[in-house]
Specification:
This protein has about 575 residues and is mainly beta. It is built from 5 helices and 41 strands. An 8-stranded mixed beta sheet has the order 29-30-28-27-32-39-34-37, with no helix packed on it.
Amino acid sequence: MTPFIDALRVPPTLRPGRKEALRGIEINLTATWVRLHSQLPPTKVWAYEGLFPGPTIEVRRRQRLRVSWVNRLSGRFPVTAVEVKADGNEPTPPTDVPGRKNSTPVEGVDQLPAWCVTHVHGALTGGGNDGWSENGVAPGDAQLSEYPNDHRATSWWYHDHAMDITRWNVFAGLAGMYLIRDDEEDALRLPSGEREIPLVIQDRNFDTDEDGRLTGRLLHKTLIVDKDSNGGNVTRPFTGPYTLVNGTIWPYANVDARWYRFRLLNAANARTFELRLVDDETGKPVTGAVYQIGSDGGLLPRPVPSDAGLSLAPAERMDVLVDFGKLRGRTLRLVNTDPTATYPQVMQFRVGTGPVRDPFVLPEVLSSFERLTHDTAPQHEHRLIVLTPPGPVGNGHPEMWETREIKPDGLTFPAEGIIQVTGADGKTRTYQRTARMFDDTLGHLVKLGDWEQWSFLNLGGPMHPMHIHLVDFQVLSRDLYPTGDKSPYDNRVGGTSKPLAFLGRAPIAPGDQGWKDVIQVPAGQMVNVIAQFQGARGRFMYHCHLLEHEDMGMMRPFVVMPPEVLRFHHHTPGGGHGHDGH
């Protein structure tokens, strides 16, 4: 396919009035056909309101919105799912090759019913409205949800969250953006209207016919790496060769020589996009024109120059300003500099040559944001969540363990499910696994209004973008620990032979120093985040936002209850409660 021959599509904006929002709006999930590229046959997708991606929902802060998500899907499931075995060292990953050659079908995917549940990612709403994964809605039925929208201006998004099959339902097309406005944002007079553009970035692969030509049918191809270093098979999440922006493969956009605002969303299953703006002719990076002004949870305190690029993991959002006034008459490419990408191009910008009056001036201060530290944060509980490498212990998949601190007396190391960690304070603590699968006993009971520090420790393997429903959090620190051959973690046993040694701290990127709801947790890091669990009650989830990992068990529930009620709860686990932090 030829890049940059199709214009960027911008999803329509759905702005319900106050009365309409209170009465409730209806958003239909339907099957439809779309052209993802002018050289590609039509592709069947599942979509909100027949649009891929869905319409951008826009509301004001505290404008309560009631939505009836109506399942009107019909027909055959629009995704073909296959697996291919390889050693993982091929020059071109087998998953980036179109078609099903040398692959094995994933049994049962072609028989999947239209079973869906919609989650508004980032929303502060009660557990009954959050889109609980097991509360799937069948065709002809509706999911009724209410969103108070009491949140600072930000970009959320909505997507399917059905238990065990999220990776295929989202891949089929069920995703869209959700924006909140407030007075603080209005006062900045940021670029708006046609100069504020959502960019929903995804990757896909397609099936081929007997002659090797692309058919347009969506192909979810995953790689099974045979005989990894731990002696077992490892299943890698989906990544595909073709990058889509707003449902178009490698589009172009005509822009005036003035400031623009882009609301970036990584809606891919598992690919992290390392984005950079470069000159189309020379390939040299553009400098002094790109600024990040917001992250998952809203505006940053100050603009962050982004000459070094933007790292956008699945489910992360970024609010970005680009000064095309400095780039008059030039053609630019947005590229993915990740070396694993077969095709680096994402989209093209064609900057106009004519003079344009633009009164916008980049503000020095953006918001009333206050940065928290471990010392300035209110008194808080601590929890440790361990992310294990893929291998024999997880049957080829990484696992997510909840833990509790125990005394090491009488233990012999390594022992399954036992982790020892030396913290920044020099103290060594011993943790025991208390849960590893979604259906294990509930471990995280949170008092409404409490602050808690959650620490995600990645013992090795891929980066995990960790997401906690209900809350925004701040990153307190990125603590470094040994990984790979230098790590005392024994993946064959599932425990450490000696304590993991604290190796110092990595800096927190300026773009990660605002409010977040997804955070990248690379191998060899313990990422410590802090949040207040307030504003809503009920049962929620946290999980890795690599959708294949989420579906394979890296997801766990937590419950938020009023403290007056929790004191009478029949089972209050001790997992993570009341011990010292790191």
